[in-house]
Design a protein that fits this description.
Length: about 150
């Protein structure tokens, strides 16, 4: 089941974030997405009574941006990443967005595969995008928009 995040989810989300990312988001980053960022939509996917994954995306007028997506290791490769991404894409389309963009580490083959299989294409390279100096691919997927 995919549902909106609440503050009660944050401890579990922070654990998953630590498990998965070299530069994990902190509690205040997630709190801002929950309470401060008027453009953010932040959702979790629950399985067997626990959080299996989450995604956070921004709806900014005609532009959507995938800010974060993660699936707990033991639930990976079961289609949950695809479900979360589809939810973000549906939400963006229903708000009339013309495209969705994201940044991904050039070494992150699993995520790049997920995005390419969902119709994202590489638009550009962002040099030294991450704190450890790794480059990012900027990827984009055109959406239906409202026109
Ligand atoms: C990227 C991530 C969210 C994918 O989640 P997932 O639930 O394992 O993905 P799915 O099972 O839905 O697979 C979706 C597609 O990606 C592909 N894929 C997933 N993991 C893969 C891997 N390790 N290697 C190659 N391809 C992979 C699958 O083959 C699938 O393609 P298909 O639909 O054609 O079969 C997950 O690996 C993850 O949380 N990674 C760590 C956090 C991260 O890097 N987030 C992205 C930041 S930009």
């Amino acid at each position: 089941m995919i549902r909106k995040v609440t503050e009660n989810d944050l401890d579990e989300i922070l654990q998953i974030e630590q498990e998965l990312f070299k530069g994990p988001w902190k509690r205040e980053d997630f709190l801002y997405e929950l309470d401060g960022n008027p453009y953010a939509v932040f959702a979790v996917l629950e399985e067997d009574g626990e959080i299996a994954g989450y995604a956070d995306w921004w709806i900014m007028f005609e532009q959507a941006q995938l800010a974060n997506i993660a699936v707990r290791k033991k639930y990976q490769k079961k289609g949950f990443g695809r479900l979360l991404l589809d939810e973000a894409l549906r939400s963006a389309e229903s708000h009339g967005c013309e495209n969705m963009t994201l940044e991904v580490r050039v070494s992150n083959e699993a995520a790049i595969r997920l995005y390419e299989n969902s119709g994202f294409i590489i638009a550009n390279k962002r040099k030294n995008y991450y704190e450890d100096g790794e480059d990012a691919w900027l990827m984009i997927k055109p959406l239906g928009g409202s026109q």
